[in-house]
Write a structure and sequence with these properties.
The chain is built from eight helices and no strands. The chain is about 80% helix and about 0% strand. By secondary structure, it is mainly α. It starts with a helix and ends with a helix.
C-alpha cells in the first residue's frame, strides 16, 4: 500500500521525507501528493509526528517544486515549448492558462499533474514572479491546509 511506503520513508528520513516527496514530485516520485499529505495529517493526529513541523515541510516542499517549475519556464521557455509540443498534458495546461489566466494559476494547483505543469506554463508566458508567487503560494496554502486538515481529522475514518 502506498501509505505504508510513506510511513517507511518517514521512519527512515523523518520530516525530510515530506519535503522530498513534494519538492521532487514533478521529477518522478511515484507517490501521489494527495496520499502523502493525508498520511502526514493522519500521522500527526496520532502523535507520531508534530503537526506544525509536518505541515511546514509539506508546504515548503510544494512551494519549492512550483517555484522551480516556474523558473524553468522563464529560463528555458523556447526549448521547453519545442520539447513538449506533442505532450497532451502540457498542451492542455497551456490552453487552460490562455483561456483562464489567473484563475488557472489558482485552480490548477488543485489538479494532480497540472499542479506542476501550470507553473511551467506561467513562467513560459512571462508572468511576473511577484504575481505568480502571490496567486500560486496562496493556492498552495489553501490546498495543503485543506488536505492536511482532512488527513488529521477525517483520515482515520476514511482510511
Amino acid at each position: 500500500m502506498i501509505s505504508d511506503t510513506i510511513i517507511q520513508l518517514v521512519e527512515q528520513y523523518g520530516y525530510l521525507a515530506f519535503f522530498l516527496a513534494f519538492s521532487l514530485g514533478p521529477f518522478g516520485i511515484p507517490v501521489p501528493n494527495e496520499v502523502t499529505i493525508l498520511t502526514g495529517g493522519i500521522l500527526s493526529n496520532t502523535g507520531v509526528l508534530d503537526p506544525w513541523i509536518t505541515y511546514i515541510f509539506i508546504f515548503v516542499g510544494l512551494i519549492t517544486a512550483i517555484t522551480i517549475s516556474y523558473f524553468a519556464g522563464r529560463i528555458l521557455g523556447r526549448n521547453i515549448n519545442i520539447r513538449f509540443q506533442d505532450n497532451r498534458h502540457f498542451q492542455k495546461a497551456k490552453k487552460i492558462f490562455k483561456q483562464r489566466g489567473d484563475l488557472a494559476m489558482c485552480l490548477g494547483l488543485f489538479i494532480p499533474l497540472v499542479r506542476y505543469i501550470i507553473p511551467l506554463v506561467v513562467g513560459l508566458e512571462g508572468v511576473k514572479f511577484k504575481k505568480f508567487a502571490l496567486i500560486s503560494y496562496s493556492s498552495v496554502f489553501l490546498w495543503t491546509a485543506l488536505f492536511f486538515t482532512a488527513g488529521r481529522y477525517l483520515g482515520e475514518i476514511v482510511f
